[in-house]
């Protein structure tokens, strides 16, 4: 629009008598140096959702995932240095096959740098902290692995019915 461009406040020439087209501004989108008609604008695609509704959705998703959920002891003490091999060994002990498109969600209580670095290079493994879990990831995962510290918080936050 014209408002996006500076200048152009004065009428370039009079309305009548010149034989030229009517012009109200030298910054019209039709002119060089003018604004852009229907140009790109920043847009947020965020959807508003009520807090209680979101909590209920996550609780329901966790309930539906009970059959494919494993609870393991906290991972942070085991990863004193980042090693993808150690994470893969842990997943193999839990009979998780990340090679054949078997998406796995690993929920931890808080972000631990070495755990994150050990997990990020494994395909189809999604590492989430409790403040960042969402319904889509829970429903999409074929297996859900929850750290015991995270499970305690889940029980408190989403009720006893959301945990085994």
Automatic annotation (TrEMBL):
One GO term under biological process is: translation
Q: Which family does it belong to?
A: Belongs to the universal ribosomal protein uL4 family.
Spell out the Pfam families in the cross-references: Ribosomal_L4 (PF00573)
Name of the protein described by the UniProt record: Large ribosomal subunit protein uL4c
Q: Which PANTHER family match?
A: 50S RIBOSOMAL PROTEIN L4, LARGE RIBOSOMAL SUBUNIT PROTEIN UL4C
Q: Which organism is it from?
A: Calcidiscus leptoporus
Gene3D superfamilies found in the cross-reference section: 3.40.1370.10
Sorted alphabetically, which InterPro entries does this protein's record hold?
Answer: Ribosomal_uL4 (IPR002136), Ribosomal_uL4-like (IPR013005), Ribosomal_uL4_dom_sf (IPR023574)
**Residue ranges of the region described as Disordered:** 1-35
Span of the signal peptide: none
**Keyword set, alphabetical order:** Ribonucleoprotein, Ribosomal protein, RNA-binding, rRNA-binding
One function term, GO molecular function aspect: structural constituent of ribosome
Q: Which GO terms describe its cellular component?
A: ribonucleoprotein complex; ribosome
Q: Does the keyword rRNA-binding apply?
A: yes
